Amino acid sequence: MNKTSDLMSKRFNPLTGHGYIWVYARAYVRVFKQAFWYMSCNTYNKVSSADFNETYECVFCKFSHAVAVPRARVYVELEDLTGSLSGTMIGETAETFLQYTAKQLMDSGSEVLDKI
């Protein structure tokens, strides 16, 4: 199966509250006072208090040689003709949306806000 058919085979089930749905909407960044990246474990992607490129033991995946890497994150509002809902884009999706890598976001600080 390809990725699309994998997703469609797991359609949203209202009885269990699990599955996937397709949303066709415009995404907006409404709040610019947010961190557009966070430091994370390079294997598990969970938040970390370690410094960039620091090797540490991840409390989530228990990997003793985890490396702290930046990961892009942006809080957005999805809007269509029926209304809106809040969401979060993380990782490659956030990088594509913002048109910056997590490392660029980390290095540039608030300078990126003028260009988003």
From TrEMBL:
SUPFAM superfamilies: Nucleic acid-binding proteins. Pfam families: Rep_fac-A_C (PF08646). InterPro entries: NA-bd_OB-fold, Rep_factor-A_C. Residues 24-108 form the Replication factor A C-terminal domain. It comes from the Eukaryota. Gene3D superfamilies: Nucleic acid-binding proteins. This is Replication protein A 70 kDa DNA-binding subunit D-like.
